[in-house]
């Protein structure tokens, strides 16, 4: 539970930062996906990628593919 809580805390901190900047829209899929990936990498592989805090090419590709799938289903 500690690993998941830490990952959720990182996500919430990002949301608080966005809210304090006046952001009114939030892409939940991206944030929840990053939090889930962060938790899985820590639990399954004992790997701390910091994927919620720093961008990576892998994550960018996943998000781009997800957007294309969503666009295609519309």
Shape: globular
* Order of helical and strand elements: HHH
Q: Given the structure, what is the number of helices?
A: 3
- Poorly predicted sequence stretches spanning 5 or more consecutive residues: none
Query: What Rg do the Cα atoms give?
Result: 13 Å
Task: Name the structural class.
Answer: mainly alpha
Q: Give the averaged pLDDT, no decimals.
A: 89
Characterize the structure shown:
- With 74 residues, the chain is an all-alpha fold.
- The model has no long low-confidence stretch (mean pLDDT 89).
- Helix 1 (2-20) runs antiparallel to helix 2.
- Helix content is 73%, strand content 0%.
- It contains three helices and no strands.
Task: Please give a quick description of this structure.
The protein is mostly helical and 74 residues long.
Give the topology, please.
Elements: H1 2-20, H2 28-45, H3 57-73
List keywords for this structure.
3 helices, 74 residues, mainly alpha
